[in-house]
Amino acid sequence: MSKSKQYVESILHHVELNDENKRDMKEEFTLHINQKTKAYEKEGFSKKQAEEEAISEFGESREIGKELNREIFPFRTSFLILAGLSGLLFSLLVSILTFVFHESLPYVWFFIVLIANTSIFYFVRKPSKAASQRLILIILLLVIFLLNFYGFLLMDGLMQSHLLYYGLLGLYLSHALILFSQIYMGAMFQPVNVDLKMLSDQKRKTKLSINIFTGIIVLGVALFGLVGWLIFSPTSLPVIPLFLIFSWSCLFVCHLKIKKLENVARFLMIIFALFILVAFIYVQFASFT
């Protein structure tokens, strides 16, 4: 591999681009470097010297890559770092407080959460992997959300200390918001689904927003129900949580894949999610009265 190709690859190593955009960016950088190289050759430089001069004129590859990545994905790196740190802090505080108040340590959960949140920093250090392994990153962020949802349930025993409970709740909600903003950002600008790639930005935003936020509501309530089922009645069948998951999944597929049912599915997803949210809030308030 020539020095100019190595230089371009080094730049793109620090940029989060899918294969198609990476190929276009590589061609553009290579074209500019070749033009500069030919200009230096006309001035009397040897081919090797001309190539080195052209590369040095562009600047340090790491800094160019980082600056380019900031232009494409503003605050992407900062938010991923914040997601990892806030997740680690939340899991550490929940584990410590659970041990202090209940003399039990959820060490298995903490160990898994520790690994999951630390894995985010792999994609922080290697932005090109965040593009080539986009689906893995999205799944990782979803898994972290589910793991921390379990941590949120562990907080139930801390409600006697309102300051601690609401402080942890605020941290949990902030962390969840960061996670879903990064899922949205990745899916919006570099969709893993072929159907989404074909849509305009506005239509893609609409679809992703509805899919993500109805999914948070419906699947979150379903997960809450599944945890309650595991604790209180594991011998029975969790009909309602399974029904919620199945219904939302069917609407999700129709909304994403079946063009004729797209508008109907979108309307039903919104109504379904709002109904589940209202019902959940009503049940929670009723349990306190």
Automatic annotation (TrEMBL):
<keyword id="KW-0812">Transmembrane</keyword>
<feature type="transmembrane region" description="Helical">
    <location>
        <begin position="267"/>
        <end position="285"/>
    </location>
</feature>
<dbReference type="InterPro" id="IPR047928">
    <property type="entry name" value="Perm_prefix_1"/>
</dbReference>
<feature type="transmembrane region" description="Helical">
    <location>
        <begin position="208"/>
        <end position="232"/>
    </location>
</feature>
<feature type="transmembrane region" description="Helical">
    <location>
        <begin position="165"/>
        <end position="187"/>
    </location>
</feature>
<feature type="transmembrane region" description="Helical">
    <location>
        <begin position="107"/>
        <end position="124"/>
    </location>
</feature>
<feature type="transmembrane region" description="Helical">
    <location>
        <begin position="79"/>
        <end position="101"/>
    </location>
</feature>
<feature type="transmembrane region" description="Helical">
    <location>
        <begin position="238"/>
        <end position="255"/>
    </location>
</feature>
<keyword id="KW-0472">Membrane</keyword>
<protein>
    <recommendedName>
        <fullName>DUF2157 domain-containing protein</fullName>
    </recommendedName>
</protein>
<feature type="transmembrane region" description="Helical">
    <location>
        <begin position="136"/>
        <end position="153"/>
    </location>
</feature>
<keyword id="KW-1133">Transmembrane helix</keyword>
